[in-house]
Design brief:
Layout lengths: L11 H15 L11 H8 L3 H13 L3 E4 L3 E4 L14 H6 L8 H12 L5 E2 L20 H7 L3 E2 L2 E2 H15 L8 E4 L2 H11 L6 E6 L8 H4 L3 E8 L2 E2 L1 H11 L3 E4 L13 H14 L3 E4 L16 H4 L4 E6 L1 H4 L6 E4 L2 H13 L6 H12 L3 H21 L6 E2 L7 E5 L12 H5 L2 E2 L1 E2 L9 E5 L8 H13 L1
Parallel strand pairs: 3-16, 7-8, 7-10, 10-11, 11-12
Antiparallel strand pairs: 1-2, 4-5, 6-13, 8-9, 12-13, 14-15, 15-18, 17-18
Length: about 475
Amino acid sequence: MWHIPKDKQYPIYQQIIALIENYIEEGKLLPGDKLPPERELAGLLLVNRSTLARALDELSARGIITRKQGSGTRISEDKWGVFTGQKTNWRHYVTQGSFLQATPYMDKMKQLLRESPDDVIDLASGELPVHLIPKISTPALSWQSFLAEEDSEDTAGYQPLKETIRDMVARDHDVQTSLDQIFITSGAQQALFLITQCLLTSGDAIAIESPSYFYALSIFQSAGLRIYALPMDDNGVKLDELEQLYRKHRIKMVFVNPTFQNPTSLTMGTKRREAFVKLCAKIQVPIVEDDPYSMLRFADQPMPPLLKKLDPDNVLYIGSLSKVMGSTTRIGWLLGPAAVVTRLAEARQEMDFGLSIFPQVLANHVLNDSDFDKHIVWLQETLKTQRDALIAHLPEGLTYRTPEGGFHLWCHLPENKIWTNRDFDIFLEHKLLVMPAFLFGIKEPSIRLTFARLNETGLLDIQKKLAEIIIS
């Protein structure tokens, strides 16, 4: 295993770095695996210890390995602060549907879904099942009519859809925007991709909530960005922690999901939002506000204002239809300053990642359909019922905060033992698919349960399996 083909084009220490990185990508080295002692590893590689030490110092600086006196060198189990410096395969990251980083846990879960889909209980997938997607007819347009609609499209998207989104955000969120500040994308992923590629530079530092589904996106590190954890409390991100991150790492951008946050389902309070945007404006750090769940609120009381409303100039707002129309509906939108929209639209055109007219026309038709608002109300009620059913069948020992919207329930397991990443495999052994906390960047005994795909006939099985796992 420990053999490097000597390549005179590159220094030996760089070849050692490449070897270890390749073994990680291929799964030969897993998170938490321990490397041989330095003297032994130098002998296996047939290099002197100073050359090996230089390679390990570089890997440690990038966050790829961790070195502790007395406990040796291990492959890092998280990616906070990791800098890969790698170039992005643009087409791969724009077109693929999921950005979840490959991990042994995820590989095993996907294998279970492939091999025995009828035997598993899926509380992990964060997508709507088919029966909850709106049954709205498609517009009766001929091929020629679709082609004619392209005349209403510019590089930033289909004009009628932009008008619909402008009116929708004004009605639902009291956010006033103009058409030149709206950018239609093929889903939230494309918006994030273009932001990382066009507005940031390799080596830049960004902050994301901790825990956060952003942690599972390989798109950030593939752009050469360093990500840093921004801890939260019950009201949202901690502002003192943000100030410290800015002073220490010169954070260039903050990515947040402040409404029914994934995975915790927490909603940042109004006062915290106001203080957050004020601080970011003071330190001149732009905010990316990802908002996939705000249509799915269960209570009647008003929601806190969007960050975009509180500071229109310093917030890029991303919306999407995927959580109400299904993941195959790849339509999203970004609201930002006109200059930013123009830059992103031109970059997308240069990359030849044009957006098809078909999903844009369909999305515009759906948003203007008289039954769409009725469907949203029905979906809210259905998800609330499924949330309540899941909570009613949770065994003693699990603690949680009841979510007021979205898809997810964030549960804390009893802290009567230390949970390593591999310990969460017990859920897979019980054929109960959940998302452990480590996938979201934190090491604690917590799991995300998604009630959007809940089958009520399996509630007793869920209760039984969770109880068995807790007492094991």
